[in-house]
Amino acid sequence: MEKTFFKETCCQCVASDTETQNEVLEKRGKLKKRRKKNENKRVIKSNLSFGNPNWKENPNRYYDSNKIKTTKYSILTFVPKNIYEQLHRFANIYFVVIALLNFVPVVNAFQPEVSLIPICVIMAMTAIKDAWEDFRRYKLDKEINHMCCYIYSRKDHAYVEKCWKDVRVGDFVQLQCNETIPADILLLYSSDQNGICHLETANLDGETNLKQRRVVMGFSSQNTSFEPEFFQNTIICEMPNNDLNKFKGYMEQPNHERIGFNIENLLLRGCTIRNTEVAIGIVIYAGHETKAMLNNNGPRYKRSKIERRMNVDIFLCVGLLFTMCLVGSIGHGIWSGSFPEHPPYDVPDENGNFLSPVLSGFYMFLTMIILLQVLIPISLYVSIELVKLGQVFLIHNDIDLYDEEADLPIQCRALNITEDLGQIQYIFSDKTGTLTENKMVFRRCTVDGHEFSHQENAKRLETHKELDLEDEDFAKLQQFTLPQMNIERPATYQRTMRPLRRSQSARAHFQGHTRSRSLGRRDSNQSQVAFSSTIEKDVTPDSRLLRRVREAALRTENLSPFIHMKTATSFTDFFLALAICNTVVVSTTTEPRQRVTVPPPIKPSGITLEKIHQIFQRLKLVSLSQSFSSSQSSSDLGASFSAKNTEEHLATSRGAGLQDKSSTDFGSASLDEVFQSVTHGTLPTDFCYEAESPDEAALVYAAQAYSFTLVSRTPEQVTVRLPQGTLLTFDILYTLGFDSVRKRMSVVVRHPLTKEIIVYTKGADSVIMDLLEDPGKADTNAERRMKRIKDKTQKHLDYYARDGLRTLCIAKKVLSEDDFQKWANFRQEAEAAIDNRDELLMETAQHLETKLTLLGATGIEDRLQDGVPDTIAALREAGIQIWVLTGDKQETAVNIAYSCKLLDQRDTLLLSAACSSPKRNKILCKCLSLLMKLFGFIPTSLPASEIPGPEFGLVIDGRTLDIILQGGLEERFLELARLCRSVLCCRSTPLQKSIVVKLVRRQLKVMTLSIGDGANDVSMIQAADVGIGISGQEGMQAVMASDFAISRFKHLKKLLLVHGHWCYARLAKMVIYFFYKNVCYVNLLFWYQFFCGFSGNTMIDYWQMIFFNLFFTSLPPLVFGVLDRDVSAETLLSLPELYKNGQNSEIYKLSTFIITMLDAFYQSLVCFFVPYLAYKDSDIDVFSFGNPINTVSLLTIILHQALEMKTWVRVCVVIYLTFSLIYNAVCVACNPPTDPYWIMEKQLSEPAFYLVCLITPAIALLPRFEQSTFLSLHFKFSEEKSYFSSN
C-alpha cells in the first residue's frame, strides 16, 4: 500500500478502542501528574490484552501519548503568558510601573492614557514576534502528528493505518523499508533471516552510515511471521532519559524466565529503516518521552558580553535618574519654602490643608521619575533583537561562508551572541575532522616487521591536490605500474590510475536536517554512502607487498609447502583481519544500501585447485634447481629486507621494490600465468561499503586493493574473495564492537579451511602492545621472532606518528575448542544478565583479548583541510590563543600542529609525560620559573592578547591533565600555558576537554570559542562562550549543540575577523548611541526644571516626546546596526590586528560609557541654553520655546550619529518636520490650556529659528568632531604602518 507523508484521512481509521482509551486519558488529565515519583523503572504490557472493560488495569495508561506539542502558547494562554514572560525583563517592569504610577493624580506628569503608549507598542511588537514563531511551531507539530504508520488492531486482526499522534505505549507497530520510526520501539521481528534491522540515523545525529539493530533474543529464530496477539510477555525497562547510546531492561515471560535487552534492540524515533523489508516492534517510549524529543531542547539561550555590560549600565542610568529626581524634589521643596505665603497655584485639599514641603518633595520625586523615564531606553531591547536578526541574515547569506562541495551554508543557531564573535580571546579546537578532512586515506603499513611505504599511493595522493592536471601529468600518472608483473589488475587498481578531481568526491548532503525532514519518508536513493569519496576508496598497492600477499594467499591453501608458513600466514591474516574485523555493511554500486548477504556467483575461471597445485609443484622443482645456491630461508630474507628498509627511515623509493629480487621474482612468469588465469573469473560487480567510521572504511578499501575483497556479510557469516579468486566464508561466532574504554574491536571467526577458531583484533597501538603474548613463554626462535616483530613495528609506528598518520595495530589469537566454549558460556551469561550487564560484558571482552599475536600495523592519513594554516596564522595575528584538544597520540598531534602552523619549527616544545603528582608539581614549577626568567614577571591580570609572544609550545597528555585537575595545580598550569605560544592536549577525553575550557574561561575571565565536529566535542562546545560545530563526516551532534555551524575550518577566519568585528562594532556603537541620545534628550527636560520651579512641567509636547524616542531617533541605529561597515572586509582580512579592538572591548566599556554620558550632558546644555539665550527677551509661549530646543536636539543627535557611524539616515529629519507640520496644523485643542497649534509653521518663517538650528549643533558637536578626526587620522596611520611592516 502506498503511504504518504501527510494524510488527514488516516485519522478516520482509528479504531473505537483507541478512541475510548483517549477519552479515558483526557478525563484523567495530564499523565505526568499521576506518575509516582519514586518509580525508577517502567512496566509495559501489550495493549491487546486490555479491552475497553479492563482498560483501567493497563499500566500503560499512565504514559504519554505520541502526540507532540512544542508550542509555548494556546489561544487562551497567549496574552497572559506572554505578558508574564516579557515582565521578566527589568526594563519592561520599570516602564509598566512608571505608566501605572502616572495614573495617580497627585504625581502624574502627563495624560495617563498617553503614558501607556510606549510600553504597549514595545510589548506588542515583541508579542507579535513571539506569536509568529509559535505559530510556525504549531504548523510543524500538526504535520508531524498527522503522519501515518501501521498499528495492529485487535478488532481488525490486522495492521491499520493511524496517525502518529494515536500511537500509544504498548502498541505494535509495523515498519517498512525507508519508513521513519514514529516512536521508540523495541524490535521483536525483522524480515531479515538473521533478525537484523538496519537504521539510518541521519535525521537524529546526522550520521549517514547505517546502524544495526537486532531482534530481542528469543524472537530472532522464528520462521513464521510475528503474531502480536500471542505476545504475553511483560517488559521492564528504565525510565525515559536522553541518553542515545544506553538503554537496558528485560522481558519477563509467563514462565517467569527473563530475557535481557539493550540499545541494540531499540529503534529510535526519527530514524529511518533501511535494507529491511518489514520490522515489527512494541512501543516503549512515545511522544515527549522518546529519546529524540528529550534531546530536542532547541537552541540554548546565552547572554552576550555586551548584554551583561549593558545591564550594568542600565542600573547606572537608574542611579542617575534617581539622582536627578532627588535634585528635582529637593529643589521643589526649596522653591515652595521660599514663598512667605502660599502662591496662588498651590491649591489646598478639601479640608483647607496644604501639603508639607517634605511630602510635596516626595510627590515631586515620583513626578520627576515619570517625567524623566525616557532616560532608560525603552526601545533598546527590541532594537537589539531586530539588529541581531539582520546580522544573522547577512552572515547566513555570505557567499564566502558557503561550501559549494558540500552544498552547505553557515548556520546561525544562536541569535543573541553574534557580537561575541568579535571578542574571542581563546579558541579550543578538535583535530580530527576539524583541522583535518576526516577522510581517512590508507598510506602505509607494516606486516610481520616489514614496512611497506606505498610510494605509488603517496604520489597519487599528491596528484589529488592538483585539481587541474594537464594531460601530460595524467600520462605520467598512468606509468605507475607494478614492476615485472604483467598481470591483469583488479578494477579497483585500474581506477586509481585516473587523477582525482574535486567534482569526483562524494558530497555529504546534511542540509535541511530539521525536524520536518527527520519525520517523513524519503526515497532510499537520496541517501549518500558515508566515507566513500574517490580519494578514500581508491588505493594504489605497494608493488612489493602485492607480490608477497599473492604468494601468501596461494600458500594459505597449502599450494606451496616449500616456503616458511608463518610469514605467509602473517600476510594473509593481516589482510583478512582488515577485511572482516569490522561491522561494514556490503552493498553494490548498482543498488546502494541494498545489503549483500549471499555471495554473487563467480564466472568459471577455467583453472582448478588441482591445476594450481601442479603448477606450483613444477615451480618448486625449477626454483630448487636454479635459484637457491645457499640455504638462506625466506624468513631470513625477510629480516634482511626489513632491516634495510628501516635504515632508510620509511622513505623508500619506487625502485626499492626491486631489492631482494632473488627472493621474490623466482618463477615470476609462471606465477603471473596463474593469476592471469584466475583473474578471468572476476566478480560481476563492484561493492559499496557502509562503515560506522572512516577508519574502518579505509581499511576495508585497502584490503580490497590487495584483492582481499569483502563480498558479503551477515551476522553469522562473512565472505572474502582471495587474490586467486577463491571465496572463503568465515563463520562469525562473536563480534566485540569498538568502545572508547577498550579502544579496540574484535571478531571471533572459524576459518573455513583450517577449522581453527581465530580472534582478529584491531585497535590503538597504546592498547594492543600491552595485550601481546609474553615472548618469554615461547621457545627461543619464536621468542626472538616475536620480539623482533614487536620492536620493528613499534619503530614503524613512531615514524608513522611523526608523519602525522593515525595508527592502528592488527593482532590475532588462535583459540582451542575448549577455551572458546568456556569463554562463550561466560559471554552468554553476561549477555543474559540483568544487573551489572555492561560490566560483565566488558570483563568478558578483556578476558578474550589477551595473549595476542601481532600481525602488523597501519598508517592512515587524515588530510589537513584547505586553508587551515592560513586561518590559524591570521587568528594568531589577531591576538587569539589557539589550543588543540584531541584524543590522538602525542606524535600525531604535534605533527599536525607543525603542518597547520600552530607550532613553528623554531619553537621549543615542553613535553609533559605521566608521572606522580609531587613530581609533576616540581616539573611545572621548574618550567614556569624558566619562562619567568626569560620573559620577566607577567601579572595574571594582563590580557592574553598583550602577553609577549614566546617561542614555546606546551604538549600535555590526558593522564597529566588528570593529575593537574585533581591535584590542585590548575593555577600553576594556567600560568605556564599563558606564556606558551600554543598548547596541545593529547589523549584527552571529552570530559577533560570540557573541564579545560571551563577552567580557562573562569580562571582567566576571557572569551572562549570551541570548535569541533563529533559527538565527543559536544561538551567542549557547550562549555565555551561561543560553540561552533563543523558539519563533517562524524554526524550532526556537534552542530546540534553549537551556536554556529560551518562546514570548513577556514570559514572561521572571515566569521571572526570580518563578521565578528562588524557585529561587535555595530552593536557596541548602537548601544552607546541609545544611552547617549536618551540622556541628552532627558537632560533638556531636567534643565527646564530650574526655570519652572521644579514643578514637573515640560516645554515640549508629550506626543513629540513619544515619537522622538520611538521613531525619529530609532531608525538610524537600526539601519546602522545591520549595515554599517567601519572597515572594509578586505582591510580586516589583510590586517588581523584590527580584531584586537573587540578583544579589549575598546568601543564599549565603562570608560567609553562615562565619556559618552559626559558628552551627552554637555550637548544637552548647549541645546538648551543656546535657544534660551536666543529667545530670552521675547514673549513666546512655552511650546514656542520648546519647539526650537526639540528641533536642534534632533539635529544634534542625528549629526552625532553621522560623525560616529558610516551609515546614517537623513530621512529622519524629513519625517520629523513632516510630522511636526501636520501635527501642529491639526492639533487645535490637544493639550489645553496650551496647544502646539501652528507653532512649527510660524517658526519656519523666522530667520532666528534657522540661525539657532545652524549654530547650536555646530557648538554641541565640536568636541566630538575633533575627537573623530583625531581617531580617523590615527587609524589611517596605524593601517599604513601595519601594511608596510607586513610587506
Automatic annotation (TrEMBL):
Cofactor(s) the record lists: Mg(2+)
Bias kind Basic residues: ranges: 510-519
Alphabetized UniProt keyword annotations: ATP-binding, Endoplasmic reticulum, Magnesium, Membrane, Metal-binding, Nucleotide-binding, Translocase, Transmembrane, Transmembrane helix
Enzyme class: translocase
Membrane-protein topology: Multi-pass membrane protein
Location relative to the cell: Endoplasmic reticulum membrane; Membrane
SUPFAM superfamilies: Calcium ATPase, transduction domain A, Calcium ATPase, transmembrane domain M, HAD-like, Metal cation-transporting ATPase, ATP-binding domain N
Domain P-type ATPase N-terminal residues, every copy: 56-114
GO biological process: phospholipid translocation
Record: residues binding Mg(2+): D430, T432, D1013, D1017
Domain P-type ATPase C-terminal intervals: 1039-1269
Gene3D superfamilies: Calcium-transporting ATPase, cytoplasmic domain N (3.40.1110.10), Calcium-transporting ATPase, cytoplasmic transduction domain A (2.70.150.10), Calcium-transporting ATPase, transmembrane domain (1.20.1110.10), HAD superfamily/HAD-like (3.40.50.1000)
Active site as annotated: D430 (4-aspartylphosphate intermediate)
Main location group: endoplasmic reticulum
GO cellular component terms attached to this protein's record: endoplasmic reticulum membrane; phospholipid-translocating ATPase complex; plasma membrane
Chain residues that bind ATP: D430, K431, T432, E696, F738, K762, R806, T886, G887, D888, R987, K993, N1016, D1017
Membrane-crossing residue ranges in chain numbering: 91-110, 116-132, 312-335, 362-384, 1071-1090, 1102-1123, 1150-1174, 1180-1200, 1207-1226, 1248-1265
Location of the region described as Disordered in the Swiss-Prot/TrEMBL record: 498-533
Homology family: Belongs to the cation transport ATPase (P-type) (TC 3.A.3) family. Type IV subfamily.
Protein name per the record: Phospholipid-transporting ATPase
Gene of this entry: ATP10B
